[in-house]
């Protein structure tokens, strides 16, 4: 079974403006959309669109938490969220003529009892399960929660996929995550330097493998992605050409596509190719890509070279 952990789910409220955002004025939207959000949840949604079951874990509370649960119920996605006091966060995404901005809320306070409930669920994972740890850690939770989860499952043969930011990621490498997925900006932040070539990207990804990661998938936006495996093999795949509608969830879709295809084929090249298609299909549409949208892109899409 695949389990996704989203420590801070959200309602993503997306607003599109016809012109650029104007400060100190009333801005009128031309389009609005709201959907359940959170990186792990996005992974579960795309897997579900590919007819692959997963169980979504995390913390929810209040009327927004009810929206999160009902949204997943409508999609027939199983979830076992821990109920918390307070209200699950609402994130605002603003797309204007020339830019894309976001206001991400903090979310509710997570208590020690809430954490214990999550740990109890994770302790029931079995050999050969897949665990996806994705997203930042809420301010009310110890920065070591991902490390604690790794320790909790370390005695089992579980593939852990980790997609988080610099400090949380680096502290978990010693637990040998099966795959980490920094984007280029995050990789540059980790090493404190600009990476100007694929060779430099591969070099830094290889350093992360030396620190403990088993495989490193670096998403490069319009330049596709580079995968460096535990035996230092390098795979590079270009992405598809198309009109970007919305980047929210594109990286999560890439991760979900990789998990889906690798679990099926055990082939890194095909997993990378399929992950690129999933990420692009989401970017070219208004929500997490459907199976049909992904298949149509693979069938008829053109790639950058």
Per-chain topology:
Elements lengths: L1 E5 L3 E8 L11 E9 L1 H11 L4 E7 L1 H13 L3 E2 L2 E2 L5 E7 L4 E4 L8 H11 L7 E5 L10 H9 L5 E5 L2 H7 L6 E2 L3 H8 L6 H13 L5 E4 L5 E4 L5 E4 L12 H16 L2 H16 L7 H10 L5
Parallel strand pairs: 1-4, 1-9, 2-7, 4-5, 4-6, 9-10, 10-11
Antiparallel strand pairs: 2-3, 7-8, 12-13, 13-14
Helix pairs in contact: 1-8, 8-9, 9-10
Quick structural summary:
It contains ten helices and 14 strands.
Describe, in plain words, how this protein is organized in 3D.
The protein has two domains: 1-16 and 31-177, UDP-N-acetylmuramoyl-L-alanine:D-glutamate ligase; 181-305, Ribokinase (UDP-N-acetylmuramoyl-L-alanine:D-glutamate ligase, 3-Layer(aba) Sandwich), CATH 3.40.1190. The strands form three sheets. Strands 1, 4, 5, 6, 9, 10 and 11 form a seven-stranded parallel β-sheet that branches. It has a four-stranded mixed β-sheet with strand order 3-2-7-8. It has helices at residues 39-49, 62-74, 112-122, 145-153, 166-172, 184-191, 198-210, 250-265, 268-283, 291-300; strands spanning 2-6, 10-17, 29-37, 54-60, 78-79, 82-83, 89-95, 100-103, 130-134, 159-163, 179-180, 216-219, 225-228, 234-237. With 305 residues, it is of the alpha/beta class. The chain has ten helices and 14 strands. Helix 1 (39-49) crosses helix 8 (250-265) and helix 8 packs antiparallel against helix 9. Keywords: ATP-binding, Kinase, Nucleotide-binding, Transferase.
